[in-house]
Fold this protein.
Amino acid sequence: MLSGVHAGRIIVVGSSTGGTEALRVFLSQMPVDAPPILIAQHMPESFVPAFAARLDGLCVLRVKMAEQGEEVKSGTAYISPGNVHMEIARHSPGYCIVLKDDPPVNFHRPSVEKLFRSAAQVLGIHALGVMLTGMGKDGAAAMLEMKQAGAINLAQNEESCVVFGMPRAAVELGAVDEVLPLDMIAGRAILRSREIQAGRERG
């Protein structure tokens, strides 16, 4: 079982149109000891508590609405509250969530761009990005920053997307390592997230 947040990569996820169903599939395939998962989903704030509670009832890992300053833990997925940005920050000995009332980015708050950029700056090689279905290009530029910082990035393929806009934008920028059907992303994310730990154990 994973121990704390240092056993592998931390997973950050961006999604928009069609994302509620995509997140259900993605999170329901995650094991109880999954790495911490931070999610920026474009959604009105009034819908987020019920959405998080519904997913929590469907998944073996814990799913909750993110709270200001809370430490991120393995086995938990954190969904950004509506109408605020979510970032990740260092908080000894691990990492914590920071919620910000900054202006919208790419017309969105929460913005995938803000979450992914913080992952690039704070986590570097310890991040794994996942871009799911969505309209527009929110998060694509920051996903490239993640890749340049050493992260591994996955994107949902066109065939399984409701709208391929956000994954397409990230792919076209060269930010994505693998493009996969929705039902393969969770398993692949777990394998790739644990590569760091496996390398340490071999070393």
About this structure: The first helix runs from residue 19 to 28.
